[in-house]
Design brief:
ADP-ribosylglycohydrolase fold, 58% helix, mainly alpha, 277 residues, 15 helices
Length: 277
């Protein structure tokens, strides 16, 4: 099993690139990756790094520890673009899950996909990261699907086998092409309406940047679709140095350090043996 080091940026790059196009959808892959003064990190990045902090600091992987990390970072960055229900959850003293099936579960799970030592651990930890807020079965499924794709990519599993696993395990239809999906696709923040699309973008892409461009070109919730697709792609493809550098520069020092600390922890962590049948 390969420990993924610099791949933490995959989800963050996708979020930053997609941020410009979330409410100004583009249905083409021919667009600027970064727009000066416009490209930014959103709630996708903040909550991704909250999950990273949880894995970094809470060895018990507790619900309370995760809630604490999410509320701490979420309150520090209140203007990152949270949904209404989640924004309320961030401010509550005793927050409870609220039955969401939204793609917030899928967009923040990528640290689990990089951290897990077995597929079972990836699925188990993904479930925890989802159900503190998104405890609807579709929300949990969306988080697990992204984490599983990342874990399998790290193990060198082929795209064909990843497609087969996701379809059989989660029931997503991955048989459509983006050319078929794109024309009629509209804004959809549900896991069931955005996670399969993100996975298809990964399956069709041939480089990291290609995956990001394909994900954004679908339209809809562009930053989150690209965040999820970029997370998976980073486990398969090299992130270009210039793309990583621009994304790093957009992050504030605190978030950049948290990302770097998590990457250092991954580099020193040994995973357990596993096998794929």
């Amino acid at each position: 099993m390969k420990i993924v080091n610099g791949k933490m940026l995959g989800a963050i790059v996708g979020d930053i690139v997609g941020s410009v196009y979330e409410f100004r959808n583009t249905k083409t892959t021919d667009f600027e990756l970064f727009r000066k003064g416009e490209s930014r990190f959103t709630d996708d990045t903040v909550m991704t790094l909250a999950v990273a902090k949880w894995l970094l600091t809470d060895k018990e992987h507790s619900y309370a520890g995760l809630v604490g990390c999410m509320q701490e970072l979420g309150r520090k960055y209140p203007d990152a673009g949270y949904g209404c229900n989640f924004a309320l959850w961030l401010r509550q003293d005793y927050p409870k899950p609220y039955g969401s099936w939204g793609n917030g579960a899928g967009m923040r799970v990528s640290p689990v996909g990089l951290y897990a030592g077995t597929l079972d651990e990836a699925l188990s930890l993904a479930k925890v990261t989802a159900e503190v807020t998104h405890n609807h079965p579709e929300g949990i499924k969306g988080a697990q699907a992204i984490a599983a794709c990342m874990f399998l990519c790290r193990g060198g599993i082929s795209k064909a086998d990843i497609r087969k696993y996701v379809e059989e395990t989660f029931g997503y239809d991955l048989g459509r092409t983006l050319d078929e999906i794109r024309p009629g696709y509209t804004f959809d923040v549900s896991c069931q309406g955005s996670v399969p699309q993100a996975i298809i973008a990964f399956l069709e892409g041939e480089t990291f940047v290609d995956v990001i461009r394909l994900a954004v070109s679908i339209g809809g919730d562009s930053d989150t679709i690209a965040c999820m697709a970029g997370a998976i792609a980073s486990c398969c493809y090299h992130i270009p140095v210039d793309v990583a550098a621009v994304s790093n520069d957009i992050l504030p020092d605190e978030l950049r350090k948290l990302k770097d600390d998590f990457m250092k922890m991954l580099a020193g962590r040994k995973t357990r043996n596993w096998f794929w049948k």
